[in-house]
Structure formats: C-alpha cells, structure tokens
Specification:
Blueprint lengths: L1 E7 L8 E7 L2 E6 L7 H9 L6 E5 L5 H6 L5 E6 L2 H13 L5 E5 L10 E6 L23 H13 E12 L4 H9 L3 E11 L2 E10 L2
The structure holds S-adenosylmethionine.
Length: 210
C-alpha cells in the first residue's frame, strides 16, 4: 500500500517539493523530479524473491525496490542516470538504517562491474514524442528505447543461473518488448500482470537460454 504525504523540501526559494512515501514498511523521502513509487514499483516488488543473493536495481529512483530487496538479499546495488535519484536513494538508505546497499550514478550498466543473481528494472517505458518529457517515464517514440539498450547489456551482467525482472506496460508493446530479449538469446515469460486504469502492467522474467 502506498501513501503519500506532500511537504516542502526547502522552506525558502527555490521551493522544491518533497514527497514522503510509505512503501512496504519503508519510509521514503522523494526529492523533486525523482520518481515516486507507484503501482509498477509495487508489482515489481511483489515479484522479487531475493533471499541471500546479489541484486542489481537499474533505474533505482528513490531506492524503493533496492531497499525493499535489501531486507532479504545479501547485497543490493542500485544505479540511476539521474544524480538527484542517487542522492535521494542514499538518503533513504540512511533513513531506514539499510547498510547492505550501494547506490551509483550510471547510465544503465555503464559503471556496473560483475554479474548479479537478480537484476530488477522498472524502466522509462511509455511511448513519448517530446524529448523533454521526464526521463523517469520517457521510453522514446516507441517506449522501448531504454529497454532495448538494457537488453544489449544484460548478457554481460546476469549470472548464468540468474534472472532479470523488467516491468513493461501494454503501451510499451508486450510482444515487441519480449522480442528484444529473445533476439539476444534469452528466454522470456510473463511472471505477473495487473490491469490498471488504461493499461496492463507486466513483469517479464528473463533468463539465459540453456
Ligand atoms: C519508472 S522510474 C522507476 C524508479 C524506481 N525503480 C521505482 O520503481 O519506483 C525509472 C527510473 O529509471 C531511471 N533511468 C532512466 N534512464 C536511465 C538510464 N539510461 N540508466 C539508468 N537509469 C535510468 C530514471 O531516472 C528513473 O529513476
């Protein structure tokens, strides 16, 4: 269950909004411009099974998924292209007393080293024609631009027996998105789905083909 409380992040000019989100037992302070956890975050969290494994959370935003995963994982690395998100997630780790997590500014896998048992990604997945739209949801003209780049880098960072969980929407194109991974030698299945207002959300479970 998500609950939001809005507050002011800085009392004097420039005034910035800070949203307090309650997410699965975590209290998160979400800085202006950083993605506030929503149904998609929640659906992905509910699909995570990360007991005593190493996890990579790509596009970590407020750190919601990374900090939730850290409750049972051995260690979690969270990356985001947005430096403000990395500041926000790091602060949220402190606020919640989570120590088995590291946040790094990175364009997808650019600054990621090694392989992970579980890789989670709630990407910008909406088709958007205006390049100035927020990169928290801007998936480019077809909604799949960032996911396609992620698919290209995944093989190098997913452990041989590991799996990736990627959130997409019916607006992203389910079959077209699956094909991005299948074409790169992965097996893909829908692990979970949920119909919301005008779209259906899917969590894709992606593994290396044998
Ligand atoms: C839909 S939000 C998800 C945030 C958070 N994981 C959640 O579920 O609440 C997408 C996130 O991906 C980040 N992002 C967008 N493009 C990225 C890229 N190329 N590399 C890393 N992160 C990226 C955005 O800054 C944003 O924080």
């Amino acid at each position: 269950m998500l609950v939001y409380v809005e507050g002011l992040y800085k009392p004097f000019k420039p005034i910035k909004r800070m949203v307090k989100a309650y997410f699965k037992g975590l209290v998160l302070e979400v800085l202006d411009g950083v993605y506030v956890p929503r149904e998609d975050t929640e659906l992905l969290a509910e699909t995570l099974d990360v007991k005593n494994v190493n996890v990579l959370d790509v596009g970590t935003g407020s750190g919601a998924l990374a900090l939730f995963a850290a409750k049972t994982a051995r260690h979690v690395t969270g990356v985001d292209i947005d430096p403000q998100a990395v500041v926000c997630a790091t602060k949220n780790a402190e606020l919640n007393g989570v120590t088995n997590v590291t946040f790094v500014e990175s364009d997808l896998f650019e600054r990621v080293r090694g392989r992970f048992d579980v890789i989670a990604f709630n990407p910008p997945y909406l088709p958007v024609t205006d390049a100035w739209e927020s990169r928290t949801w801007n998936g480019g003209a077809n909604g799949r631009e960032t996911i396609e780049r992620f698919a290209k880098g995944l093989g190098e960072h997913l452990a041989p027996k590991g799996h990736a969980l990627v959130l997409v929407s019916s607006l992203t194109g389910l079959e077209e998105t699956k094909k991005l991974f299948v074409d790169r030698g992965f097996h893909v299945a829908v692990a979970r789905e949920k119909k919301i207002m005008w779209e259906t959300l899917y969590v894709l479970r992606i593994v290396h083909k044998d």
